[in-house]
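User: You have something folded?
Assistant:
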Amino acid sequence: MEKPGSAILIVDDDQTNTRLLEVQLKSSGYQIMTAHSGGECLEQIKAHLPDIILLDIMMPEMDGFDVAGRLKADPRTENIPVIMITGLADRESRLRALGMGAEEFLTKPVDRAELLVRVRNMLRLKEYQNFLADYNRVLEQSVAERTRELREAYKDTILTMVRAAEYRDEDTGAHVQRISFYCLDMAEELGLDAEFRDEIFYASPMHDIGKIAIPDAVMLKPGALTPEDWAIMKSHAATGAKILEKGGSPYTRMGAEIAQNHHERWDGSGYPKGIAGEAIPFAARLMNIADQYDALRSKRPYKPALDHERVVEIITVGDGRTLPAHFDPQVLDAFGHCAERWRGIYDAHAD
């Protein structure tokens, strides 16, 4: 998704580090801007906004934490991805960097391959955000017929975005297709209106779009995740909501709600915020049970696929990890009526 020649601003008081990063990135076709202090960085972006910022933490006068905080507090620069580069390897520094709004961090000495992957992924993230922000402005300028055409094109773009995220996880294959059909079926079972059914059909596949920003080392890790890995993985919910919140269409509004909340549970034991009951948006409550059904049915590197009968038993009776209390009682009741049809959906759209 990133455009050739995307502009990257490197901020580091050490000119040797700056030159090394500049050489590595220029060879991949990026345009490079440099600043040797936090103040110089803030001055440069007044005249020209880069597509991404590589920001050193340890600088005199104004360190990288302060610069990141100012960038994220300014509406002009809040959506520019920031990758913090530091010699600090402790967990507290990393969490502080993320807390200031930085999207990623790299530890010195920077590995060239990792640098290029992180830059590529952050530029993709920015492209998605820019597309969604621009789409709403285009809609407002369109006449009624053009609006209909754009809505259809927008649906196609949603599917393209979803496929881009899905491509990073080969095991999820037809997962997002099945999710659309499960959610549509349950919406019909609950008697929800045509507008809601249309929106959830296209919004639900975007539930994991935030995984586009999860580092490959975590996303594709074959073994068990460490607690720190798991904390990074769980961030996909908030990241997905951030990608989608600028879109302005009914699909992305619902998509943002679902992305943010589809791992929340009725009893409050979910994440990222641990909200409970009706505080969870209804579309996310519906999505939660659909996602759980499909995850249990599907093979993953860390688990075998389970058959339909066993999955229904786990959702309706529980197995210790999954409990009926995790689901909205109204949605759980509807699942009992939908379950046999969901078996057919899974079989018809198998990986």
Notes: The longest helix spans residues 112-141. The mean pLDDT is 86. The first strand starts at residue 7 and ends at 11. Residues 135 and 182 are 28 Å apart (CA to CA).
